[in-house]
Design goal:
340 residues; alpha/beta; 2-enoyl-CoA Hydratase, Chain A, domain 1; 8-stranded mixed beta sheet; 48% helix; globular
């Protein structure tokens, strides 16, 4: 069985943010020039516009602010977990329910074949339209979602197969019902159990990596992140509301939180940043899937002959290193460093 085609909308005429409008305008001019192509003068104009468009893309996307990267991480056409499963895996069999309360559709998972070998894959799933977003709860999982994830990961441990986890959530659902059913406990319990799960765990933040919602399935042996994804203790809007009582200052909060892939890599929070096409993963989902595939394969090769005791010890040490403050990290967090 071949991987299914991902249902991701790409191309020039998609959803645009304000900082992308100059690119959209130039692309429109290029389309008009292509319609008129045939005359020698039109061909010259076409070539000039193509060069200008490439230069403009490199200038804009090569100097994105942290807030602009957050916007790209939330792009409605960005590939989601099920899209990557379709592009990367064969014979995906979804599994449902936490065996206690119900099934949470904001978190999907099941068994699959990756490069012909069995694995367990799971991750947050958002919707493509209003109806699906309501069904998926906008990718914000309930306690039963995290309990389902742990149930599936224990299956991976039982059958000695690796777990591939894709993170993409604004945060765990904070509603009254979720709190009554033990949201904080389910996330904390997952973190403890994942720390000692006796199977290799690969994690990649493919979009939003929001707070405890991400941590609830975010403890593993290797943490990768896509170039325009983010991983943070709080959303920029939430941070701005707390610090300045003004959500409009979210861009300032995004810069202060050090949530971009380059910041996280430099600070040792993630192990790898995976490059995206100019403009974001939605511009070429298949290319991003190929790079993600290569990252997973490198990880599996690294751990294939590693004793379990060594694997668990490395996982423990990896998280113990996070949060250790040093003069080197103070220099990285200084205003002079952040402005460079």
């Amino acid at each position: 069985m071949q991987p299914r085609q991902a249902t991701v909308i790409s191309g020039m005429n998609g959803y645009r943010y304000d900082f992308e409008k100059p690119i959209a305008e130039l692309e429109h001019r290029l389309q008009e020039a292509r319609k008129a192509a045939g005359r020698e003068k039109s061909l010259e104009i076409l070539k000039t516009l193509e060069v200008q468009l490439e230069q403009l893309k490199r200038r804009i996307y090569g100097s994105l602010t942290p807030w602009q990267r957050v916007q790209l991480a939330r792009h409605p056409q960005r590939p989601y977990t099920l899209d990557y499963i379709s592009l990367l895996m064969n014979e995906f069999i979804p599994l449902h329910g936490d065996r206690l309360f119900g099934d949470d559709r904001a978190l999907v998972g099941g068994t699959a074949l990756f490069e012909g070998k069995p694995c367990l894959v799971l991750g947050h799933q958002k919707g493509r339209d209003t109806k699906e977003n309501l069904m998926r709860n906008f990718g914000s999982a309930h306690p039963e979602g995290y309990r389902k994830a742990l149930r599936l990961m224990r299956l991976a441990e039982k059958f000695h197969v690796p777990a591939v986890i894709l993170v993409d959530t604004p945060g765990a659902y904070p509603g009254i019902g979720a709190e009554e059913r033990g949201q904080a406990h389910s996330i904390a319990y997952n973190m403890r159990e994942m720390a000692r799960l006796k199977t290799p765990i690969y994690i990649c933040v493919i979009g939003e990596g929001g707070s405890g919602g991400a941590l609830g399935i975010g403890v593993g042996d290797w943490m990768a992140i896509l170039e325009n994804a983010y991983y943070s203790v709080i959303s920029p809007e939430g941070c701005a509301a707390i610090l300045w009582r003004d959500r409009a200052r979210a861009p300032d909060a995004a810069a202060a939180l050090k949530l971009t892939s380059s910041d996280l890599l430099r600070l040792g929070i993630v192990d790898e940043a995976i490059e995206e096409p100019l403009g974001g993963a939605h511009r070429d989902s298949e290319l991003v899937a190929q790079r993600l595939r290569a990252s997973i394969l490198r990880f599996l090769k690294l751990v294939e002959s590693m004793p379990l005791d060594t694997l668990l010890s490395r996982r423990y040490d990896r998280f113990r290193r996070i949060g250790v403050f040093s003069a080197h990290q103070q220099a990285l967090l200084s205003p002079a460093s952040s402005s460079s």
